[in-house]
Amino acid sequence: MKPTIIAIAIAAALFSHAAIAAEAPPLRYDIYVRGAFNGWGTDNQLAYKGKGVYETDILVSPGNHAFKIGSKDWNAEWVANPSASVAVSLGTAYPLALEAGPEDYLFTKQTATFRFRVDVSDPGKPVLSVSRVETPDAKPAVDPHAGAGATASLSFPTWDGKQETARFSVRDPQAPLRSYAHSTTMQLRDPGPQYTTYKEDASLPQVRSGDLAFDALFALAAHEMRLDSVKEIRDGNYNGNNAIPCDCFETGEKWHYVWTRDLSYAADLGLAMLDPQRVRNSLLFKLSGWRDGVTQAPQVAGTKDGLQIAQDTGSGGSWPVSTDRITWAFAAEEVLKSLPPSERAPFAATALKALSNTIENDRIAAFDQATGLYTGEESFLDWRDQSYAAWIPEDLASMASSKALSTNVGHYKALTLAAMLARERKDAARARRYESWARELKRAINARLWLEDAGMYSSLTAAHFDGAPMHKFDWLGQSLAIVTGIADGKRARRILASYPHGPMGAPVIWPQQLDMPVYHNRAMWPFVTAYGLRAAVAGRNVAVADAAYDALMRGAALNLSNMENLEWLSGQPLLLDEAHPKLIGPVINSKRQLWSVGAYIGMVVRNVFGVSATDEGIALDPFVTAKLRGGVFAAANEISLYNLRLQGHALNIKLRLPVVAGKDVNGVYAVERILLNGKPGGAHIKWSELADDNQIEIVLGKLEAGEQAIRRVNADPYVETPAVFGPHEPVIAGLQRDASGNATLRIEAKDTGKLHYNIYRDGKLVASKLPAGAWTDRRASATACYAVEAAFEGSGNRSHHSRPRCLDTGVEIPAADPRVNASVALAGPSPRFDEPHLANWGGPQDRFEVRDVKAPAAGDYAVQVRYHNGANQVNLGISGGVKWLAVKDESGAIVAQGVVQLPHARIEKAHTPLVYSTPLAARLKAGRAYRIEMSDFYNMSYLQSNSSFNAAGGAEGPSNRFDIYGVRLLRVR
């Protein structure tokens, strides 16, 4: 090209850029492509290109990726169809709706660069198109191991008969602090090189085992712990996505905030020992008192400031649909063991105050006196459609009223910790109160959730009007029941022998759910595997422990990181199912996920070397199996953990290993003797016995058999087989009672093949192994409620229960009835969300009452409010309705009272079915006139920590509002 032509070209380009710069962008805010490929963050801002067009290019890995167009603070959220997800085709123009809705999807079977183009020439009618663009040629491959002084590799078989290998190297194997290179042959989840490098940190422990790979993987976990240690955090839902100062742990590469359960399980598994101060800071960040101007309802318990644990945003508008905020106690207990005394005392005082306020209000809002169990969603399994019945997302009050094993174990931990702290502070009355509640809860879990035929605890009960413990199981709940001591030794052994393990490890739920992508469903999560390992160690189950060791090492080695989750049958970070793109997953997956990092650190420190902190000092209980000894430790006579710092004491632990037991020999090595600084010691060492620098030698001796029972299952990960899946839940298509009092229901099947059906009446099994079709109950009462489950012949895997149906049709009183009185106008007779609606009832001073309510017959009734809460989507927010409902007799005496929940509900344009609140149980007499009154309680939007939340209940003030359409009395006994 001639110089004059070059000059003209440069001038033209400069003129073009100047023109764009001079042209005012049509939007007054930045807009982003936010999706599963970037952790729903703001890494991919759409740049203004002029003429109303915004663009960004994103390198996307294989998968079926959910995404939306959104602003930094989510105040702008654009989707192709607010009623249904859209699979985007390349080159097609999609008009975008300027409102919240389900995610759109982009499918690609290979890593490629995609250009997202949004045309806002008409800001009221933006248009999206996606096209593929050429990815620049990759740089020449780099050999990360060139010049290595030592190398090692780990190879693992794949589900389809192949092999994947991770390779490790160091330049100077004798260096006090090594620098590692780490590569893998496995296709990684996210675009990038097939290798990584990391260094050991002088402030953290190091391992020397004689196996470079084992040493490297521990260094990787410590390195990722440091990457997750941040000075500030952020999330698009808070503070306008601007940074919030906090010396905290963020949740992972794609998750830059502090989430209560993620932090708590990570700290409990391993992080609290290594950095108790940062864990403490993070825990304090998850505490909050009342917002300015909040007036407490008289029924609210606790101190005046309201300091309590925050439940993160989530199902139905957060707490108390979800009540696992109490997992905070797992981390708090470990921090209290590891903080020095001068820092422990103030944190202990704060922890007791926050735990007490949380416990007392959870007792009011989420405790079922009839069963002795707490209500609320399963802990961590918070994608409703992944682990609940298909009808539950349409009726989240039914999820709110169910009881989950994992969450109840969390309440048990909170009660026992609060009792201990109360005793420390000489508050004997409070300690006795919480100890009593903990004993009763342990008894209720064992009485209500244990399934003798399965040898495991039910993960969850069915909803109100059913309540039966279902044959659904989760590995976290089972493991926590063991490690907390809720399960006795006999039950622990049965659980460990009964929970299924695939070739790569244990899935987080069992059985799997049909027609659902991989995330919680069909997945293996390292932190859950680590709790399974702790449970196996507690139960001395060698086979289950070896499976966990294998799974944790494999996952970190082949992925170059401690990933969020993996498909459970293949061990892949992404199972690309081209024939079924909606089933691809895990649908999101982050590197250096905090609880996975804590899991790996805990596996090495707490399980292999056996070191854990206690209230008085340290405990030593290494769990070295014959498989570990003959595998990664085969070349060594001893393995060492250096520079573990606890309460100002440096610990250097050396495990002396026996000779290799031989091929195909299983068992765990017993501790023969322990030496502390050259002198005989015991398995428990007090802080006062430790010097500043300590040498601990543990000599392993005899190989003991331990427990060997493990349940193995296998299947093709691309096939939804009855061997590992449960059926869809059936439907009760008809229910009626004849003149003789017999009730006939009709079972409508959703699946074909060899199935049978079980029928529950009022939560009790009354008929089993039935075919689909009609069944008659000749012992029906006029108030019976029924539910049905399906089971596959052969595997016996069962479905969730159907939506329950009751014989009593109830007494409906619509909002327009003259007996209804409210302090503000109520909604009309039926909702249409393509028209304006009120949603204005629910302010702190608002009142609602229904006078002269008469029960047609004496008995036990469920009193429910008919409503709609469209404040946010069913999976988001902090604005679930939480109110106080009371039933009073003619004299004004209270007959029944308590919290009712009115969670977020689906919004559809033309018609949205109304839903009912959780029920208030009331025993009523025939012919008497009663009055129903509803007033305020509180939800998470009342907390100061949510004052910068971007949606309902955030910056504009608390939101506890919904539309009221009436009340219902349903006789249930």
TrEMBL record:
Keywords: Signal. This is Esterase. Residues 1-21 form the signal peptide.
